[in-house]
Amino acid sequence: MAINRKRVVIVGDGAAGTIMANKLRFHSTPEEIEIDVFGNSERHYFKPDGVQIPFGFKDPANSFKPTQSLFNYGINYLKANIRKFDLENSTVTCEKNRTFKYDYLIIATGDRFSTEELPGYDKAASHFYSLEASMELRQKLRDFKGGKIVIGQASIPIQCPPAPYEFTFQLDQYLKLKGIRDKTEIHYIYPLNRVFTIPNVSDFIERLMEERGIVIHKMFNVDSLDPMGKKINSLEGETLDYDLLILVPPHSGQKIITENGLADNSGYIAVDRNHLNYKDYDNVFAIGDATDLPISKAGATAHFQSEYLANRISNEVNGNAYFEAYNGDVACTTITGGNEAITLFFSYTRPPKANFESKADYFLKWTSSDTYFSAMLRGIM
Ligand SMILES: Cc1cc2nc3c(=O)[nH]c(=O)nc-3n(C[C@H](O)[C@H](O)[C@H](O)COP(=O)(O)OP(=O)(O)OC[C@H]3O[C@@H](n4cnc5c(N)ncnc54)[C@H](O)[C@@H]3O)c2cc1C
Fold first, then answer.
1. pLDDT surpasses 80 at 1
2. Residue 124, SS3?
3. Among 72, 187, 360, 380, which residue's Cβ finds the most Cβ atoms within 10 Å?
4. Ligand 1 in contact with 85 (CB < 6 A)?
5. Contact (Cβ atoms closer than 8 angstroms) between residue 252 and residue 114
6. 353 alpha carbon to ligand 1 midpoint, in Å?
7. Is ligand 1 within 6 A of the CB of residue 70?
8. Strands 33-39 and 6-11, sheet pairing
9. DSSP code for 260
10. Beta strand 284-286 with 215-217: parallel, antiparallel or unpaired?
């Protein structure tokens, strides 16, 4: 039956924005819903490959695709960043000063690396959280002949909380393959009184780290860096020297979100944890890494949130009742070294089980960039 066509504006062309747009296109016709996505990324990089690229375990040429090519037929991709959000008048304005009206607004602007919070970061540290940084680290690891490596994260939250331990296990494997593990100390720092946020997963990971001779420093909240002296200092008063520092940079939400009054200085948007609405706006939502929800900042989170929201909006537009809710679902496969991996499934109310590693999980992870580009991002899965 014919209805009034609605316009859904999605701000952000990363994992969350792309999955959301493609899923919504599957759930509705262009006559029912116009979908406009704003963003200005030349390419879409599959960030999980960052834990393998520095070791040469993955060819980076297969880790990205042109952003434009990833939107299904019937989606308008507008290459511009949004500068102004006017929720009272239901409009957004882009950097070219053009204003667009919406019926539904979905903010999927992700987060950013706020290295300004940690003076000396750029000189002192390497990381694997972007393609460029992973390539630089690859060269440093190729040149590395042995010594002391300190690895960890500058603060919480970060994207993909398991990535630092996943990287560490592969570092151990890489150094063994290179024949210099016995000449290298690996020191793992973590800001809590364990090695991962979730206690039972932490116990499992800690055991694996101990088996591999990785030295653990718990309650190490990074306070300052000394790039010249090659030292890292914690708030708790511990100092470690290093030959190579691999530190996940501090993260924040986007500045533009704070500047528009949509979040405090953290830049993360507070949304209803089950319905993803911003404040009491029925038609404004945030998804993906942009939210302040107490769950992993992960592509899998964006995927489950998009599934819920695409269903909800298409049903609402068609006048159907929809009673489902987003319950905090996340799924995450992480490599534990030795060509094995573990998969964790959890939600707000269901903690993950961490009891075994398997080669099947490793295969799942190994093929994840193919699955991501061909099916997940496309909204098919
Ligand atoms: C090393 C690493 C390993 C990871 N491993 C996994 C894993 O195994 N499994 C998993 O599920 N997740 C993993 N992740 C996390 C996952 O990649 C992120 O959670 C996911 O990319 C978040 O998607 P997003 O769309 O919210 O943010 P992003 O992908 O960062 O996209 C945000 C987009 O918004 C755009 N944008 C920002 N501001 C504006 C604006 N004003 N106007 C328009 N556009 C704007 C940006 O340019 C960007 O394209 C990993 C991440 C890293 C770094």
1. no
2. helix
3. 187
4. no
5. yes
6. 26
7. no
8. parallel
9. T
10. unpaired
The domain locations on the chain are: 6-110+254-327, 116-250
Closest ligand 1 atom number to CA of residue 14: 31
Q: Is 128 in the pocket of ligand 1 (CB under 6 A)?
A: yes
Can 6-110+254-327 and 116-250 be said to share one CATH topology? yes
Cα of 31 vs centre of ligand 1, distance in Å, is 30
Closest CA to 162 of 291, 346, 305: 346
What phi and psi values does residue 78 have, to the nearest 5 degrees? -105, 115
pLDDT tens column, 122-158: 999 999 999 999 999 999 999 999 999 999 999 999 9
Pocket mutation for ligand 1, best pick of 84, 100, 289, 373 (most atoms within 8 Å of C-beta): 289
Cα distance between residue 269 and residue 308, in whole Å: 18
Strands 239-241 and 231-234: antiparallel
CA of 289 to the centre of ligand 1 (A): 6
CATH class name, domain 6-110+254-327? alpha beta
- Which residue, chain included where needed, has tokens 């970061």? 121
The secondary structure of residue 238, as a DSSP letter, is: -
Phi, psi dihedral angles at 295 (to 5 degrees) = -135, 170
In whole angstroms, how far apart are CA 191 and each of 197, 336, 354? 9, 21, 21
Give the model confidence (pLDDT) of 336-357 as tens digits. Answer: 998 999 999 999 999 998 878 9
Q: Can you read off the two tokens belonging to residue 375?
A: 């099916």
Ligand 1 centroid, distance to 243 Cα (angstroms): 30
Superfamily per CATH, domain 116-250 = FAD/NAD(P)-binding domain (3.50.50.60)
- 109 CB under 6 A from ligand 1? yes
- pTM for the full predicted model: 0.97
Helix (H) or strand (E) holding 175: helix 163-178
One-letter amino acid for residue 128 of the chain: F
Pocket test for ligand 1, best of 22, 159, 258, 296 (most atoms within 8 A of CB): 159
Ligand 1 centre from 213 Cα, in Å?
Answer: 33
299: CA distance to ligand 1 center in Å?
7
DSSP 8-state assignment for residue 351: P
